[in-house]
Write a structure and sequence with these properties.
This protein is α/β, with parallel strands linked by helices. The chain folds into two domains: 7-217, Spore Coat Polysaccharide Biosynthesis Protein SpsA, Chain A (Alpha-Beta Complex), CATH 3.90.550.10; 220-277, no CATH class. Helix content is 41%, strand content 22%. Strands 1, 2, 3, 4, 5, 6, 7, 8 and 9 form a nine-stranded mixed β-sheet that branches. The radius of gyration is 19 Å and the shape is globular.
């Protein structure tokens, strides 16, 4: 009888005492085993760490468990710390305010075990509000979701549904870890992964993704933050000059329109000039 591979589940915890018990319970009740669970509390100012400890201290469902806290170092450094400690053949990061359906890991591990050509598998999610009410399905079935997805990520025609991923930890040996220079570290990481590997997809909802005022993209919604960050990520990762110019010009156009709509005329003038020089 084949021994199922170890899966590392990483949770970067920060100020989610309201949600962390549901999050961790969804890991503890997975139909799949064995699981290594690594939770790092990134200097929360609420009782997140105590709640996480309390809801995991009596469990014996896991292969191994680590729940620790330390001063704040930011999301990207926390993800890297978990990744560098991971012992699993596969790894998945779970947002500390999100939760999984119980069959998530079982379905995704079976898929990757049967499809060796893929380094990552993803699926659909249900977006929920702060109180857990369903808002809208995050549906990748009608997008480019399988195979070589680098260009689809750049052109925004598809890609990886971040809340639902599972990937082989062996990719770190080739592409490295998350880049702490970016707040949209997942965008940069998926581009690097998809440049080297193929991606698979399961057309099922496996995760619940919480959308509220504390999401990074909801908080940092200024034109300068979003578009400058994405432009820097594209310039780092896109080697093809024509594709890079096309992609960054699209972002300059969007930034220009957003600046005009919000009355930030000085910023709009800046983006217009940068677009003209981007040749």
């Amino acid at each position: 009888m084949m021994i199922p591979p170890l899966v590392t589940v990483g949770v970067a915890l920060y100020n989610h005492e309201r949600y962390i018990e549901q999050c961790l319970t969804s890991v503890l009740t997975q139909t799949y085993a064995p699981i290594e669970l690594i939770v790092i509390d990134d200097g929360s100012s609420d009782n997140s760490f105590d709640v996480a400890q309390s809801c995991t201290q009596k469990t014996n469902q896991l292969h191994s468990l680590s729940v620790t806290t330390r001063p704040n170092r930011g999301m990207c450094n926390t993800l890297n710390e978990i990744a560098q400690r991971a012992s699993g053949k596969y790894i998945s990061f779970l947002g500390s305010d999100d939760y999984w359906l119980e069959s998530k890991l079982e379905a995704q591990v079976a898929f990757l075990e049967s499809n060796k050509q893929y380094a990552l598998v993803h699926s659909n999610s249900m977006r929920i509000d702060a109180d857990g009410k369903s808002l809208k399905k995050i549906d990748y079935s009608q997008k480019e979701n399988t195979g070589h997805l680098f260009r689809a990520l750049v052109e925004r025609t598809g890609g990886v549904n971040t809340p639902s991923h599972l990937y082989r930890t062996s990719v770190y040996d080739v592409i490295g870890y998350y880049d702490p220079n970016f707040s949209f570290e997942d965008t940069d990481f998926w581009l690097r992964l998809c440049k080297q590997y193929e991606v698979g997809f399961i057309d099922e909802v496996h995760t619940h993704y919480r959308w509220h005022g504390n999401n990074l993209s909801a908080r940092k919604n200024g034109v300068g933050f979003i578009y400058d960050e994405l432009i820097n990520i594209y310039e780092k990762n896109i080697d093809d000059d024509a594709l890079r110019i096309k992609a960054t010009n699209r972002l300059y156009n969007k930034a220009l329109m957003r600046s005009l709509q919000s009355g930030e005329f000085k910023r709009a003038f800046e983006y217009a000039g940068r677009r003209l020089r981007n040749r």
